[in-house]
Amino acid sequence: MLTKQQIAQRIAQELQDKWYVNLGIGIPTLVANYIPKGIEVEFQSENGLLGMGPFPIEGTEDADLINAGKQTVTILDGGSLFDSSLSFAMIRGQHVQLTVLGAMEVAQNGDIANWKIPGKMVKGMGGAMDLVASANNIIVAMMHTNKRGESKLLKQCSLPLTGVGCVTKIVTNLAVLEVKNGAFHLLERAPGVSVDEIKTATAGDLVVSGKIPEMKFPS
């Protein structure tokens, strides 16, 4: 199974040169540490930061530079800071080519639930609703199962939805899956993980076509 860092590293392989990319809270924030060589990517954080770099080295943190999850980050040369209205104008105006989000559940039709567990206190949905409503390319970074071993890839989400039919791809600790035609399509499996293990861990409809390769990581 992949670690959270490896999930982020695999998602980083989806980045393309000159893209603007929004990174959500949790595993997605780690993607900034693994930009492939030879490409330039601008990371946007909805709290008002463009040109976000990797996490700072311990002891060099600047408390005024934080991402949407209130983690200290770095800013690259040429980066900029601005207010939330401009940040969400970028998002709503579809100027972001890729959005990477965490999730508690994803349904086989692309629905995502990532903001609330009924009965637990939350401050609000934050920017997630704007992101899923405006983005055409959403990759979810998540664990395949919850702490009880139950699948988080479902036929239908049981938690309150953040967005409907919006997820295009999922990278978990077990697999890379594409969401299309109302099902999860298995593209890659984590090193050492069998297709049968992925089938067992997936509650939604899973399409397996041909031989499924293992994920590859740059050395």
Overview of the molecule:
By secondary structure, the chain is an alpha/beta fold. The protein has a single domain, classed as Glutaconate Coenzyme A-transferase. The chain contains 4 helices and 13 strands.
Protein traits:
alpha/beta; 10-stranded mixed β-sheet; 3-stranded mixed β-sheet; 13 strands; 15% helix; globular
CATH architecture: 3-Layer(aba) Sandwich
Question: What is the fold-level CATH name, i.e. the topology?
Answer: Glutaconate Coenzyme A-transferase
Helix content range of the residues, please? 10-25%
CATH level 4 superfamily: Glutaconate Coenzyme A-transferase
Largest sheet: 10 strands, mixed
Topology:
Elements lengths: L3 H9 L7 E4 L18 E4 L3 E4 L22 E7 L2 H9 L5 E5 L2 E3 L4 E2 L14 H7 L3 E4 L11 E2 L14 E3 L3 E6 L2 E7 L5 H7 L4 E2 L12
Parallel strand pairs: 1-2, 1-5, 5-8, 6-9, 8-10, 12-13
Antiparallel strand pairs: 2-3, 3-4, 6-7, 10-11, 11-12
